[in-house]
Amino acid sequence: xxxxxxxxxxxxxxxxxxxxxxxxLVEWALANIAAILVLSAPLVxxxxxxxxxxxxxxxxxxxxxxxxxxxxxxxxxxxxxRAIGYAERDEDLLVRSGIFFQRTMAVPYGRMQYVDIAxxxxxxxxxxxxxxxxxxxxxxxxxxxxxPAAEGARLREQLAARGEARLxxx
Length: 170
Description:
Elements: E1 14-15, H1 20-47, H2 56-83, E2 85-88, E3 92-97, E4 103-108, E5 112-118, H3 121-126, E6 128-135, E7 143-148, H4 149-168
Antiparallel strand pairs: 1-2, 2-3, 3-4, 5-6, 6-7
């Protein structure tokens, strides 16, 4: 379903690299394996007879529900990555994300204070980076993850140049 507020007509969205799915999968695996191990500890203690509480049904239900939720999030990861996009317009940069709760943020070039590139260990291994846009407003946390390193460097330079040109015109 396409909504005009979220997806303005005539916008040519640039999508992030499909390799970003692997970065998200590694993050998913690390977080969920740790969570399920911690939440399964009471089950192990109940089965070994070391603990009498919680009841067996509760000790099984909590890690099982966490596992089901984790699997649901796993299924959504590729679609979430495909939903991330950005578009450079004359006066601002649009950043789009979200499946269920969609968000399109317009960041005017003149409001940008600086543009930052961040690279984590998994991103570095995949040749990707995250471009972060910083403005005076703390509510603006525009970030574009999963960009190829060359595109991230190009975008950083382009945005910095456009921001300086807009500030010089004030």
